[in-house]
Every structure is written in C-alpha cells, then in structure tokens.
C-alpha cells in the first residue's frame, strides 16, 4: 500500500516538474535568432541583422506598459555612454509605431528603437539578449538588469 502511494506521489511530482519547465520556458523564451526577426526602425526602414553585428550587440525586448523595462533604461543609457561606438544597444518592441514614437519623444535615451512586425514570443519583459559579432546569442537575462551586470557580460564577450 505504502509503495503504491509513493509511486503515485512520485508520478505526480514528475508531471508537475515537467509541466512547470515547459510553462516557465513559454513565459520567458524570446525569439533570439536575429534572422527570424522582422524589424523596422521608426522611419519604417527594414533593418537587416548584419547591420547590427558590426560590433557586439545588446538587444532589450521591452514594452511601454512594462514598468521594469522603463526602470532599467537609464542603466542601458549609461552603458551606451560609457562604451560609445564599441557596442550596439537596441531596444525592440512589438507595439505600434505611434506608441513607440510618443515614448521616445518624452524621453532622452539615445539607443536605437526598433519595431518588430511580428508579435514577440514572450509573456515576461524585459528580456535582454547579448549577441557576439557572429549573431550568436551568448547570454540572455530575464527581468531587470544593472549597468554593472551589463558591463560584466559585455567585457566577457571580448
């Protein structure tokens, strides 16, 4: 009898663990293959991934409704100011052009705003992905980050 109960409990735990893994992955998985992203700048020009890979690249997936996204933007701005043209910092949203333009008008951030024509496959934002010059995603962060953490990752990419 005890053996049967233990088998049932272990079976339930296994199912819950596997289901939890796939559920969490669906919440946090971002499409990180640059060639699969359909991106435009605010002028409407198509952006090709090769244009972004002339140097290490940081992409932050965000939304104007995401308070943690907006909260971490000063961190990205400081990184951009410290590293200058040694790195590309890009933020991507799947919101409308007018929504992004309104946000940009009300803020002084100097990174590139891009719009994804496809809905981003993520339920949690922000997601930050670091790419090497080959376009390979070398690190992905879920949630807010800091200037120190960004710089540490960028320095490890050299």
From TrEMBL:
CDD domains given in the database record: TlpA_like_family (cd02966)
PROSITE patterns registered for this protein in UniProt: THIOREDOXIN_1, THIOREDOXIN_2
Cited InterPro entries: AhpC/TSA, Thioredoxin-like_sf, Thioredoxin_CS, Thioredoxin_domain, Thioredoxin_ResA/DsbE_sf
Domain Thioredoxin: from-to ranges: 28-158
Superkingdom in the source lineage: Bacteria
This protein's record includes keyword DNA-binding: no
Gene3D superfamilies attached to this UniProt entry: Glutaredoxin
SUPFAM superfamilies: Thioredoxin-like
Keywords carried by this UniProt record: Redox-active center
TM stretches of this protein: none
PANTHER family given in the database record: PROTEIN DIPZ (PTHR42852:SF13), THIOL:DISULFIDE INTERCHANGE PROTEIN DSBE (PTHR42852)
Protein name per UniProt: TlpA family protein disulfide reductase
